[in-house]
Amino acid sequence: MSNAKLIVMLTQNDRTVVNASDIFEKCRGSKAELWGFKEEGIPLAEMKALYARIKECGKTAVMEVVAYSEEEGLAGAKTAAECGCDILMGTMFFDSVNEFCKKNNLKYMPYVGRVTQRPSILEGAIDEMIAEAEKCLEKGVYGFDLLGYRYTGDAEKLIEEFVSCVKAPVCVAGSVNSFERLDFLKKAKPWAFTIGGAFFDKKFGEDFCEQVDRVCGYMEK
User: Which domains does the chain have, with CATH numbers?
Assistant: First the structure.
């Protein structure tokens, strides 16, 4: 399997930052191929314009919806489709959301486990999460949004076991905020991981764009 891909999230505290468009413009020439943000934080018109720009620049557009009810999940999926996104991450799995994604060519990557609050926290038994993922795969989801470092249990054990057992793309989302965690992800080999808040907190350097390229380069080593 190839190196885990970075999904740059223009978000802090699980909400899109108000200057997301400006940041993307400065960094659009970076090595990162996947860019996204959350369903909350900026108006819909701005979201549409920014996703259009992301696609125009040849990047993959990702929306992560931090919602736990069927109604909110479906609303988030509709927003993602309206924005022309490629991938919908987040929401708890619902058949209605899954069917909507299939009809609208959205790759659906729901959460597994018990997810609450915002910023999210994850609870649940690892074997139950893997079993839940298997049932979702039978229904045709693309992959999973695993809140690995937001887990109240042993985060590394969860990531390692989930990635090795679940035969689908897994994105480790949330709180990837150190080179030590990047080293672990190199070994665990998920399909992708997100970084948002850690870039704004300057965990990988001073300049946002330099941090993006530094993380991309580090994962290629």
Answer: 5-220 (3.20.20.70)
